[in-house]
């Protein structure tokens, strides 16, 4: 008799504790699994590279002749490696051209994708579809669409463009 | 008197349980039946021999002789146990009884709390937009989408006046939903003028990138070159650069184009 009156409380409490422990174990395992999941980590890195690529390509297609220094500094900030060197080398010549033309260029990213991502090597390739608007002192603003292909390199300051160019036209279908 | 006997029996059961869990030589279950008071008192030696512990040996003779004083002392010397209910427990016994369920309750709350927290963290990690998008992370699916969308785009944007039916066939194979109408409008001129001008339109995808894959839906950015050749009078070819984003859906084992985004301009 004594045992049957004592048991239900402790047994029920124990059963609840065991169930709670099981859930806690499962929850902890699931959390650990998600935190260690390589593809989740890779997805995060892909989106970081994409965001950096979009911004950098947009920066490189934005320039206001009234703020040449700020604009070109942003260009150099967005680039690294060969591209950075080209920008620095050509800066003076380019400044003169823009001051003469007095253009304001702005860009809007229409769509973008990461096509390759090598996390270890710190390299990524991006496609960025742009709409560029160039406003000259005279005449209507000119709009054009631009198919950009960029190479990103990871630097201590984050992903930066190491190469940028337009996708070539007509060469594959020509022959 | 009866209290003492119950306590002794309980001690014995605990000791028996300890020895059973300690070794593979388990005692017969019948020997542990809670109502077998008489049995137990008749076989103290067996119990003592089985447990082999100092405490059990000390208590076994006490039970046989029925000396309540010694048994009670043994009980009080054993910490952390529940007491039997309803049979004039002492104040110390009442405190013992409140212990285990309270500890278990606290444990349950702590464990339950952790379980809820951990499950929430895991769900948060897995449900982030970055995690839902399996472009590039699922290598096989990414290359499957890329390949099939490339094939589809090249097929539905190519036309040869010599085989005008091929375009319809390609549209049936590769298009679904809204894309059927979009495609019809985009190629209306080609279909109309094609036979007259002896048109050959060839589309080649030069680059493509998977922006997003969310289960059976995907979005692919495509750069394509188009060559348009009129052979009716004198042969002339024009080239055009196109960029478009394709929404693809996976149905019946293949990716079909469900929507075409030309970013507000003609293809």
Describe this entry's structure for a reader:
The complex is a heterodimer of chains A (175) and B (267). Helices cover 54% and strands 30% of the residues of chain A. Chain A has 175 residues and is of the alpha+beta class. Chain A has a single domain, classed as Roll (Nuclear Transport Factor 2, Chain: A). Chain A has a five-stranded antiparallel sheet with strand order 1-2-3-4-5. In chain A, a hairpin with a 2-residue loop joins strand 4 and strand 5. The radius of gyration of chain A is 28 Å and the shape is elongated. Chain A starts with a helix and ends with a helix. With 267 residues, chain B is α+β, with helices and mostly antiparallel strands. Chain B has two domains: 77 residues, no CATH class; 123 residues, Nuclear Transport Factor 2, Chain: A. Chain B contains eleven helices and five strands. Chain B has a five-stranded antiparallel sheet with strand order 1-2-3-4-5, with helices on both faces. In chain B, a hairpin with a 5-residue loop joins strand 3 and strand 4. In chain B, helix 1 runs antiparallel to helix 4, helix 1 packs across helix 5 and helix 8 packs antiparallel against helix 9. The radius of gyration of chain B is 42 Å and the shape is rod-shaped. The interface between A and B is large, with 53 and 60 residues.
């Amino acid at each position: 008799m004594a045992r049957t009156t004592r048991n239900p409380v402790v047994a029920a409490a124990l059963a609840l504790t065991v169930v709670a422990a099981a859930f806690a174990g499962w929850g902890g395992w699931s959390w650990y699994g998600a935190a260690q999941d390589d593809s989740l980590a890779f997805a995060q890195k892909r989106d970081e590279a994409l965001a950096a690529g979009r911004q950098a390509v947009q920066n490189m297609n934005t320039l206001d002749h009234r703020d040449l220094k700020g604009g070109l500094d942003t260009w150099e900030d967005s680039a690294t490696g060969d591209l950075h060197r080209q920008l620095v080398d050509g800066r003076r010549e380019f400044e003169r051209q823009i001051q003469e033309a007095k253009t304001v260029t702005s860009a809007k990213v229409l769509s973008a994708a990461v096509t390759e991502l090598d996390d270890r090597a710190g390299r990524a390739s991006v496609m960025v579809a742009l709409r560029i608007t160039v406003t000259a002192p005279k005449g209507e603003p000119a709009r054009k669409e631009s198919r950009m292909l960029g190479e990103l390199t990871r630097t201590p300051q984050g992903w930066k463009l190491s190469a940028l160019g337009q996708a070539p036209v007509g060469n594959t279908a020509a022959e | 008197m009866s209290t003492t006997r119950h306590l002794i029996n309980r001690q014995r059961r605990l000791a028996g349980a300890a020895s059973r869990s300690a070794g593979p030589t388990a005692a017969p279950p019948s020997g542990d039946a809670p109502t077998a008071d008489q049995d137990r008192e008749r076989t103290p030696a067996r119990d003592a021999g089985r447990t082999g512990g100092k405490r059990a040996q000390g208590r076994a003779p006490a039970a046989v002789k029925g000396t309540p004083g010694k048994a009670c002392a043994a009980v009080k010397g054993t910490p952390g146990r529940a007491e039997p209910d309803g049979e004039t427990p002492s104040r110390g016994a009442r405190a013992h009884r409140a212990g285990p369920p309270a500890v278990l309750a606290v444990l349950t709350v702590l464990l339950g709390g952790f379980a809820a927290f951990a499950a929430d963290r895991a769900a948060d990690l897995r449900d982030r937009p970055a995690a839902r998008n399996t472009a590039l992370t699922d290598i096989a699916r990414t290359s499957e989408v890329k390949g099939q969308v490339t094939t589809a785009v090249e097929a539905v944007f190519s036309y040869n006046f010599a085989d005008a039916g091929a375009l319809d066939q390609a549209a049936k194979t590769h298009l679904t939903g809204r894309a059927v109408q979009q495609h019809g409008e985009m190629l209306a001129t080609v279909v109309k003028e094609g036979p007259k001008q002896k048109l050959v339109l060839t589309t080649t995808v030069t680059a493509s990138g998977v922006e997003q894959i969310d289960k059976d839906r995907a979005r692919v950015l495509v750069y394509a070159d188009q060559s348009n050749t009129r052979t009716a009078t004198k042969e002339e070819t024009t080239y055009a650069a196109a960029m478009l984003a394709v929404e693809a859906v996976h149905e019946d084992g293949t990716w079909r184009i469900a929507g075409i985004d030309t970013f507000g301009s003609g293809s």
